[in-house]
Amino acid sequence: MHIGLCIFPTEYAIRIDELARAAEERGFESLFVPEHTHIPTSRRSPFAGGAQLPEEYKYTLDPFVTLMAAAAATKRLRVGTGICLLIERDTITTAKSVASLDLLSGGRVLFGIGGGWNAEEMEHHGTVFKTRFKRLREQVLAMKEIWTKDVAEFHGDLVNFDPIWCWPKPVQKPHPPVLLGGESGHTLQRVVEFCDGWFPRGRNEQAILPGLADLTARAAKAGRDMKTISVSVFGAKPDDKTLDTYRSAGITRALFRLPPEGRDKILPLLDQYAKLIR
Q: pTM surpassing 0.85?
């Protein structure tokens, strides 16, 4: 099982290039960053059951610019979005961003995506909350067309374009793995239908092993080999007991969440977490 990291990159946190180098030096497999283009001040959408929204959500850097800096500072470290709010983005330009990052990093991209929770944030991008997962499905399918075909086209209800040329193509073939966040049965079915990995949150630990069993059953029913579906736990508990459970279950990677703090706090934490790598 791989061990990786995730952090909200902000202007006041450790520089992402320094973090990436330190992570690679200590043997971590990957580094993931989330995405929020902005946070509407209305705060109409509740966060995590009504808890107060952490300050770092307002300060998050652009994920693809951030990950390019991380990739440029390293040679082996995989770089990922955890998660990219694809439903707030243009499909064609995002396909180009992911492919460009994959090309320039030498094929190290993991493309984590999700439907999001902030309705008013989506509305500012013209996305309808109730149809966000329909949009997400069409966007992923359309991006796969762009990544794998010299001449691509897609005709859906929410994503629609005639034949296009769009390069570069990703280094990874057929394309970077698409990992879908969430823990519901709907999420698991979407993973089987059009994604390459499941991306559950460690804070919902009680849902992970039952979800893995459910995912396995759904994959078998669809005639899909579980070897083609990765499982990456976002924000996993950094302790041996939890990690041993995940290893025994066949989980692909566990990601430890870092606070958006400076180097004086982050580097010792990396040293502590590195002791859990096997």
A: yes
Q: What are phi and psi of 27, to 5 degrees?
A: 95, 10
* Spans of all domains in the chain: 2-274
The CATH architecture assigned to 2-274 reads Alpha-Beta Barrel (3.20)
174: preceding bond cis by omega (within 30 degrees): yes
Q: What is the 3-state secondary structure (H, E, C) of 140-185?
A: HHHHHHHHHCCCEEEECCCCEEEEECCCCCCCCCCCCCEEEECCCH
30 vs 137: CA distance, rounded Å: 26
Q: What is the pLDDT of residues 27-82, one digit of tens each?
A: 999 999 999 999 999 989 998 767 899 999 999 999 999 999 999 999 999 999 99
Residue with tokens 């990957």: 30
| Strands 253-258 vs 2-7: parallel, antiparallel or unpaired | parallel
